[in-house]
Amino acid sequence: MIEKDMQYFTIEAPTPREALEQMRRQYGQEARILTHKSVRRGGMLGLFAREAVEITGYVGKNIKPKNPVSSPAMEESRQRILAEARREQSLQLILKEIESLKQNLRREESGKSGEMPAGLAKIQSILQTNDFTAAFVEEILARIRRDFSLEDLDNFPVLQTQVLDWIGEQIRVHPPVRLSQANGQGTNVFIVVGPTGAGKTTTIAKLAAVFGVGGGGSSPKVRIVTIDNYRIAALRQIETYAEIMRIPVACVESAGEFRKFLAMADGTGLILVDTIGRSPRDLAKLAEMKDVLDAAGTRSEIHLAVSATTKASDVEEILKTFEPFKYRAVILTKLDETLRIGNIISVLAASRKPISYIADGQSVPQDIEQASVIRLLMNLEGFHLNRERLEKRFGERAKISDAYWS
Ligand SMILES: Nc1nc2c(ncn2[C@@H]2O[C@H](COP(=O)(O)OP(=O)(O)O)[C@@H](O)[C@H]2O)c(=O)[nH]1
Ligand SMILES: [Mg+2]
After folding, report:
1. Which of 107-111, 119-123, 381-385 has the lowest mean pLDDT?
2. Domains in the chain: how many in total?
3. CB–CB of 219/267 below 8 Å?
């Protein structure tokens, strides 16, 4: 703005109008004002001073001032105006900087507290109601902030659809256990581990019923074996189920016994292994059980039963405790006992563990189904679900009664 071929001037007059008129008179229509301020002139100790106006400005050099100012005074005036203008410019820069800092601060604050846009706040509240972990909620909110404009945030149906998709994408589903009895080779060994009371035995009974019906052949399609370091009375529970279903049941205590059992049961379509441990904290006993289970070798597949009523930090702990068993997937039990499953979805998403089966009641065998994304999404509170759309996106709810024998 400030250029060398400009001529600079300062004018002082009693009123702005007079200052402007004087400027026009002296420098013509092309003259431009740079700064403008009120000054006090005359008087003593500030008394009887009169208000005056001082303007500074510039005009192109080719326009000759009608009443030229002497050269040294002119240079002084020029320097003064330049200094003023520079000060003004750096002030503008500082102000701009402050404004951007303020904006950043506002943005950060709205991330933390009540100032967030209504759509975002609503999603946050729904996710919290469903017991999603703080980390999971934060991630979803960050994603919304990244992908949605402020206007889009006002369209709640669209926002909700997107969030449901994101949650659905976080849920991993383990494909159905496929059993083959045609080749007669080896034995499928399906082992369920998990904390006491998680629903292992009940799940084993349900699976035994599901897999025990259908198929054919001379040897039993399904056998149940209980790994029990203590031979406690719990065996009675599975024996009762097994009797009703006419499924052979056995109990083994050591790796040697288990190996013998597997050799004897060769040709069985599916061996379901129920395990009993005291407390999952009893790590020595868990290690002992792992030794026994290892006897099944590569023919086995281990799944971990976890109750949907378990709080997030405990689920994390359980997943870690049973890590040495190298379980493939999680069987989610007692879904009927809670309306909030954000905790489970959050922790499983973070640990990248898939869900294989979902149990939602005590009835054997009907209260079990193949895990599906839609079944879990349907359990979420506060969202308006478009089931048809979700089925298209994530596939339908699977029926466990489909024959898995091939
Ligand atoms: N409501 C509900 N109860 C279940 C479910 N699965 C198991 N249970 C109950 O939970 C309790 C413990 O189950 P159990 O199979 O003995 O657990 P385990 O110690 O892991 O073998 C029993 O009273 C079961 O009836 C389920 O999906 N829903
Ligand atoms: Mg049990």
Report:
1. 107-111
2. 3
3. yes
